[in-house]
Amino acid sequence: MEGVSVEDVMKAVSDTKSLDMFRSIAKGSIESEVLKQTKGLSKKQYYFRMRQLLKAGLVQRIKGSFSLTCLGAVVYHAQLIVEKGVNNYWKLKAIDSIQSSVEIGEHERMKLIKTIIDDSGIESILVAQK
Length: 130
Fold this sequence. Notes:
With 130 residues, the protein is mainly alpha-helical.
């Protein structure tokens, strides 16, 4: 099997319905029939999206149930980080605004981030930046 690209992975989870299917599988092994019925997709839509997830190496089918592959688990955790970023959009925007309008030192920058951001994962990403 040839490798997959970042583009393949991103494309497989790029629309709301595909991402929703991926998240459902990530929350626990799920049977094909259950997934088909709960996502409100036509057969064609369902199979198209599932084929993309399988082709990208994000999910695997074992005895009629889908589960994440190791790559799928990595992508799922990355997606959770992106989701946290989106959920903190306005706080991140405020930090950007303050940093661009005022010349602040590294110590003040760290203090600003720690004051505004209440998520240690995002905080560590921002602290490592620059």
